[in-house]
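Notes from hallway chat w/ T.B., transcribed later so I don't forget. T.B. wanted the structure written out for a chain they're using in a teaching module, and asked if we could keep both sequence and structure tokens in one place. Agreed to drop them here.
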Amino acid sequence: MPPNRFNNLLAGKTILLVNTGSIKKRFILQRLKKLDLKVVCLNKEKNWAAAYVDHWILADTANHADSLQQVDRFVRENDSIKIDGVITFWEDDVLLTSKIADRYRFVGTPLSITKKIRNKHTFREFCEVNGLPNPKHKLVKTPEDLEYVIRNFSFPLVIKPVYGSSSAYVMKIVNEEELRTSYQYVKKSLSTIIESALADGQDLFVEEYIEGDEVDIDILLQNGKVKFFSISDNDKTNEPFFVETGQSIPSSLPDKDQYSLIHMAEETLEKLGVQNACVHFEAKSTKSGPVPIEINLRMGGDEVHSFVEKAWRVDLIENAVKIAVGIYIPKIHKPENPYKYLVGQYFLAPYSGIIEQLDIDPTIKNKKYLEELNFFKEIGDSVLVPPEGYEYLGWMTVSGDNLIDAEDNLEEAVKFVSFEVAKFQPASSIGKTTRKNHFSFSTLNKNIMLNRGKIEKIRRMSIKNQRNLHIGVACNVYEGVGAVEQEIGSVGRVIENTLRERGYQVSFFDFNDIPKVLSELKSSGVDLVFNVCERINDSSLLEPHAAALLDIFQIPYTGSSPFTLSLCIDKIRVKKLLAYHNLPTPKWDYMYTLDDDLRTDLKYTLIVKPANTDNSIGITNDSVVTNKKHLDRQLEKIIMEIGRPALIEEYIEGDEYDVSILGSEEDDLRVLPLSRSVFDKMPEGYWHIYPFESKWNVDEAYKKIDIQRPAKNISKKLANLIGEIALDTYNILDCHDYGRVEIRVDKNSNPYILELNPNPSINCKDCVPSVAKLTGLDYGDFIEEIIRMAIKRYKSHPPYFHLQSKML
């Protein structure tokens, strides 16, 4: 609760805040506002903090000269606004804050002192000169420096940037080879994009690893006197990258060790000359005594404020501001036992990727032990972990009557939160990592994405030569038959006419007449076949054999290989493969006979499909079942009457997305605009699915499905997630040139893969060419684009490379 205005010494004071920081710092701005402070914010731009900021000074805080100039200008032009002090909660701007404090004689740490502390190497040098405990260390700038370290230091070692924060690029080294390799990795990988604090410098240094218990000491220091301190224990970090995993408060170290730690911290700060600050002091308690790791001249990040406030009822934000504006703080009494024992845990991704599922059981809010649960990432967000980045998803804090009780509560609490991360794949459209080994240089796919437009422009310039090709069209012709056959047959003629109009020589091959096809293929002289054959001997199960036949005749063709086409017909094997790669699909099982056992944990409502048909053959409104009687009836229909194995899935209620993809290789893969089917206007009694009747205009009710191309009112995060999952599916199943992935999204925005359709129908009004048109490709451009991609694929690889599947 905010203090009473009449007792609030900060009411009406004006604080200059340097940098809002990321949105994770929102709680700080909220607290400043509740303290009735006027906030003048020096920041690169107006952002999410606008509701809490009274005045903005816009300048890039990485540019100190410009920032100081803009502060001077604000002060000159706003003489009615008296700034009482300056503060930052962002590590990048500790130096700039000291410069401002020096310039305007605000309370703070002088720049000369801040420089010694901010640079981790000079801090070690200071400790050595002043008789303070410190490990053997050396600034490393050349290979010769590394050799010196190898000759004179004892392993394990730690390599780290002299600037930086959040343990970014800090690595544990266990032998000589690893030191040389990791030095090259860190040197090449240092990036202010990944860790903005490196803007102050990118030198590296090496020090001997300190064995011991790591702690954080949070200190309020005013006029050189410690007004308050708190010690918390850090859980073991994930090495070699020192990723923090959690912490607990108060420290469980023996009292004598805690006394030694605070005495060491106080002595260090006194010798440095730090007089007024809220300090986050990182240290280790070792067998030979306490050793400082580093000092942060600002409040500790993220959970530190709530930890201290809940354990000791001390508000670090309020007191840090009081110190900054010169309001006297009496020494804060700390009781023998805390008001609460707390433990916290970070939620960490196992690898870099996209959050594809996130479930937080709402009943956790009813747990009295829950103190704080913050999730900064949402479904569709990317998360980068070492070596690509240093992000975490959020954190959880729980309390207990003692530390053991709190730890037990945490063990229970984390079970209420589950998430899955889709690992970046080699052809991801969102991001990827390429590296030869654990320490080699990492890059993000955004550089590839930026160059792709230039590459595509150059490739399109050769289209005149492409039109000199003799193209064959492999298809099926049906006359005087049903809608399905007419649709299958017409697409080949449409492609033939489109290519002829653009100047191609075209031959047509009707795979309903195999003897004729065999004869014509041998003598036709076609350069490439546009393969849209969907049946042989009137069976879709033989569709892959057309591609196999073209392979046998050594004729290049568009679309996927016989292996991929065969695999995708068998929905059961596709499900198994997706499950192996941890891609999200509805919970499922299958039956080849009515005697097969069905898993007992499937929950109604279910949908029952033939496991190896296409065009929704065998799927009707009755395919969705709500009880065992209906389930048994559908199983008998599919297994006994249709004669196919049955695939049984949990029914996902929600919108359906068709994700159209073009390309085969990393540099030409692209996700086209999403097509979305919304079933809300369907009549009562109709399940929200696409049965056979919906695709062939048998039932008028299915015309009420709202098909959006492009999808409307969908967040960028969800669109990215759907695209990422579809790309993973496309690549895992080794699809070529074009394909369509069907995905359902439930009410919680969790996507589920239904199936991949390689070589989907591409008649003029079908999904893939329709969404391609949204990108500027008319139908003729779209057909030529598929030809271009097939040519590139054959030029780049040896014959039959596509049969050497990368799937398993």
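Follow-up for T.B.: Residues 483-501 form the longest helix (19 residues). Might be a good example for the class.
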